[in-house]
Amino acid sequence: MKLKDYKSVSDRQDAYQLRRILNDELTHEEVTTTWKAIFPDIAIWSIPEIQEWLSNVFLFTPVEVDKLIHKYKTQVHEKVQPNKTMTPLPKFKKNDPNLVKISKNYWEIISMMKEAEKLLNESTSLHYYYDSKENYEHALTEKNNMTNLFLEIRKSVDRHITNCERHLKGEI
After folding, report:
1. I need a surface site. Which of 10, 59, 86, 146 has the fewest CB within 10 A?
2. Cα–Cα distance list, 131 to 21, 127, 136 (Å)
């Protein structure tokens, strides 16, 4: 049997988790959590996009794709909330003394996040540290969830940095 040519290790891990959904190995809550980790609601995924990813990235057959889409529509879709609208950004005066300090704080957050992400990646244990393959796969899914949370935080901080810089330049 030939191994499937996944594009990355992460794709292989995600395909494994999706296969667990396909084989009814997960509870309803686990299905929702797993699905949201693989298809984060940072983006709005259409059914055709999900089908394309399932077949082209995760290498599922058309029958498997149909089964997964059915599970998505019946178990996950109504649980996925659309993104909340972005909160309004603060307004500053160009010469506000706190503006420079706030901007520096956001840059420091970015620096600390980069270090935290680096430490998280370096701390990922190898499969032989786990009692079973399932526990290892669960740990990888948890790490991927944390990575997605870092991405959400980074996007929010980037918005604030951009806002501060625009005020500093007098564009707003």
Report:
1. 86
2. 22, 9, 8
How many whole angstroms from its chain centre is CA 45? 13
Cα gap 172→160, rounded to integer Å: 13
Q: Are 32 and 79 in contact (CB under 8 A)?
A: yes
The rounded distance, in Å, linking the Cα atoms of 103 and 74 is: 45
The 3-class secondary structure across 50-119, one letter per residue, is HHHHHHHHCCCCHHHHHHHHHHHHHHHHHHCCCCCCCCCCCCCCCCCHHHHHHHHHHHHHHHHHHHHHHH
Query: Distance between CA 49 and CA 45 in Å, rounded?
Result: 6
pLDDT band at 145 (very low <50, low <70, confident <90, very high): confident
List the one residue out of 112, 114, 99 whose CA is nearest residue 170. Answer: 99
What the block records as the tokens of 161 is: 């940095």
At 74-105, the pLDDT tens digits run 777 654 444 444 677 888 877 788 888 998 99
| Helices 28-38/133-168 angle, 10° precision | 50
pLDDT at 138: 81
Q: Tell me the pLDDT of the chain averaged across its residues.
A: 80
